[in-house]
Specification:
The protein has 3 domains: 1-80 and 207-256, no CATH class; 86-205, no CATH class; 258-292, no CATH class. It has 8 helices and 10 strands. It has helices at 60-75, 91-99, 114-123, 197-205, 208-221, 232-256, 259-264, 267-279, and strands spanning 2-8, 17-23, 26-40, 47-54, 81-84, 103-107, 129-133, 136-146, 156-171, 174-188. The strands form 2 sheets. It has a 6-stranded mixed β-sheet with strand order 5-6-10-9-8-7, with helices on both faces. Strands 1, 2, 3 and 4 form a 4-stranded antiparallel β-sheet that branches.
Length: 292
């Protein structure tokens, strides 16, 4: 999944990308770094394992291809499916993944796509599957064998869901219920015989683990939003070191602390305890900021 790092309107380097933003009604140039992160989902902990920086003017998909080629050897046995957003859907990337033995699950957007229109037409004639999840009712239309995606070598499967959620909130002296319907579309190379509709739906939504469990947590509590040294190699090394520390601490937290202890100590509280332990060490640590 692609993301941006360290936006600044002053500091820049040859590896910076540029964009124009509005500040107090004026258009200014903002410099930032972009990268594609390899992150395993479906595990008890967030597992960011690698990052490939996107070069200025480069397409995000090109960086993702380089990243996948690099991670296939050390991590290939740990994942079977490449999970992406809609930006990656297209014959070059889908074929690249299947040629390397990996299936894909992608968000499907753009009502003008022939694949989207074909699926809409078929689903209008189908009765949906239904099931309940906590706080919501799911209606799902699932079909396979689509060959209308230009250039894609394998038949595709499309899943469309409507998720009906009823939220209850207080208004005045009473309670009001509000019903919301959310519509989702996904496409995959996995046939129904290998993955059920319900599992397809669950995996499709797990992409949000990257936003919620990784980027938000690292930016809020782990200083991912702070550039300690604005130099391309230093930036990559900082991000990778942060990933290592984050995975190690989560592993220790879940593997070494008993459930009763975890109820009283959050992950970030444990990180602060470890930091405090290092701060009070008598041995010299010139790399440590003892200011807090």
């Amino acid at each position: 999944m692609g993301t941006s790092f360290f936006p600044s309107r002053r500091r820049c380097c040859p590896a910076c990308c540029q964009r124009k933003v509005q500040v107090k009604g004026q258009e200014v140039v903002e410099y930032y770094h972009r990268g594609v992160v390899f992150h395993l989902v479906g595990f008890p902990i967030a597992m960011p394992l690698d990052v490939e920086m996107i070069r200025p003017g480069e397409d995000e998909v090109a960086a993702a291809r380089r990243l996948l080629l690099r991670v296939l050897k050390p991590y290939g046995r740990f994942f079977d499916v490449v999970l992406t957003d809609a930006f990656y859907f297209g014959a070059p990337f889908v074929n690249f993944c299947t040629d390397h033995g990996k299936d894909v699950i992608m968000v499907l957007k753009n009502e003008k796509r022939l694949l989207f229109q074909d699926a809409q037409g078929l689903f209008s004639q189908m009765k949906p599957q239904t099931w309940k999840e906590p706080g919501q009712m799911i209606r799902a239309w699932d079909a396979e064998g689509f060959t209308s995606a230009e250039g894609v070598k394998v038949p595709l499967r499309v899943l469309h869901t409507e998720e009906i959620r009823t939220r209850r909130h207080r208004q005045g002296h009473g309670w009001v219920e509000k019903t919301e319907t959310h519509s989702w579309w996904w496409v995959t190379t996995l046939p129904i015989s290998r993955m059920s509709t319900r599992l397809f739906w669950k995996i499709g939504h797990s992409r949000w683990e990257i936003e919620n469990d990784l980027f938000h947590t690292l930016a809020t509590y782990w200083s991912l939003d702070h550039c300690f040294h604005h130099e391309p190699t230093a930036i990559v090394n900082f991000i990778l070191t942060l990933f290592i520390a984050f995975v190690l601490l989560q592993s220790f937290y879940r593997g070494n602390l008993k459930p009763q202890r975890r109820k009283l100590l959050s992950l970030i509280a444990l990180a602060r305890e470890l930091h405090l332990g290092v701060v009070i060490l008598e041995a010299p640590a010139p790399w440590l900021n003892r200011g807090g």
